[in-house]
Amino acid sequence: MTKAAVDIVRGLTGSDDGLQSLGNYSKILLPSLSRLVAGNKEVAEPAAEALVNLSQNSGLAAKMVDMGMINVAMDVLYKPGSSISPLLVMLLVNLTQLDVGVTCLLQTGDEKMQGLYVMKLVRSFCRSSDEASEDPFEHVGFILVNISKQEAEEAAEAEPERV
């Protein structure tokens, strides 16, 4: 039953009309999908695909960041046996297009944890893959670009005469 429901939601996220309709139910939908991402692959994969599609909408992406989706994604990403790593990395790419997403990923404000997520992602990105299959961390570079953009914008705002 859950798999069928998640497949329907994933299908709806493939169109603009579907995204708009689902956006009206984000308070119920996003937490449910977030919980399913940590489950078995049968439901985790379509749930992650739906979240990636929904996160292309900046309003929904902001809600995801507010509800702790970056923490969930990072926890599941580094859970042993995680089979949805490429989707979670794409979700992080979308969420870090927002300043609040970058701030959350950097763990700004938590001195003990600050930068830990980025360090883990960079380490995974730099680790060479001997496998012929696709590297699940190949898109981490886009996350780093999003972080750099925010830092550059903040620097430009701090010193507008240098731009």
TrEMBL record:
Residues 78-151 form the Protein HGH1 N-terminal domain. It holds the Pfam family DUF383. This is Protein FAM203A-like. It comes from the Eukaryota. SUPFAM superfamilies: ARM repeat.
